[in-house]
Write a structure and sequence with these properties.
The chain is mainly beta. It has one domain (4-85). Helix content is 10%, strand content 39%.
């Protein structure tokens, strides 16, 4: 499990934003990803900007930290990794 998370300094543009919250998703063994029982899909979490871009390009559902909020959904495939993103300790509530 990652001890850090990528925190964006500007919100990503979502093609489809998910109303479900990170804490309600089912944890997966040996992974930072979780399972959404609503849409029956894996929600990916990464602390790597290039991986986030790859996930967006492939239409995967992702979780990103913006401010104090974990945002979930499908990021627009025109997404460009932010120049101002930082790795922060994963908050205990996430």
């Amino acid at each position: 499990m990652h001890k850090t998370i990528l925190q964006l300094t500007c919100p990503p543009r979502f093609r489809k934003k998910c109303p479900v919250t990170w804490n309600t998703l089912t944890e997966l063994d040996d992974s930072d990803d979780r399972w959404c029982t609503t849409c029956k899909k894996q929600v990916h979490r990464t602390d790597n900007p290039a991986k986030l871009k790859e996930l967006a390009d492939n239409g995967k559902c992702v979780a990103v930290l913006y401010g104090e909020n974990m945002l979930l959904g499908h990021i627009d495939n025109r997404y460009t990794p932010p120049k101002k993103a930082k790795l922060v300790p994963t908050p205990p509530s996430i």
